[in-house]
Amino acid sequence: MKANKSTKSFDAVEMMRAIRSKITEETQNMSFQELQQYIKQRFESADVRSNALPR
Asked: Could you give phi then psi for residue 15, rounded to 5 degrees?
């Protein structure tokens, strides 16, 4: 039995690895307080609440 091979137009694993690498580079030398501020700013600038499930 042969599996159907198709080319992917989107690779979620590759995208996640790229995002993780970028965040690591941006935060690698931060103190804990700087990291907390970084995360807070990122959440405030991103519209993460619109992607949340309705309450």
From this structure: -65, -45
- 39 close to 31: Cβ distance less than 8 angstroms: no
pTM over 0.70: no
Q: What is the 3-state secondary structure (H, E, C) of the chain?
A: CCCCCCCCCCCHHHHHHHHHHHHHHHHCCCCHHHHHHHHHHHHHHCCHHHHCCCC
The DSSP call for residue 52 is: S
At residue 25's C-alpha, the angle toward residues 21 and 26, to 5°, is 120
Per-residue pLDDT tens digits for 5-49: 778 788 999 999 999 999 999 999 999 999 999 999 998 888 655
Q: Give domain limits for the chain.
A: 12-51
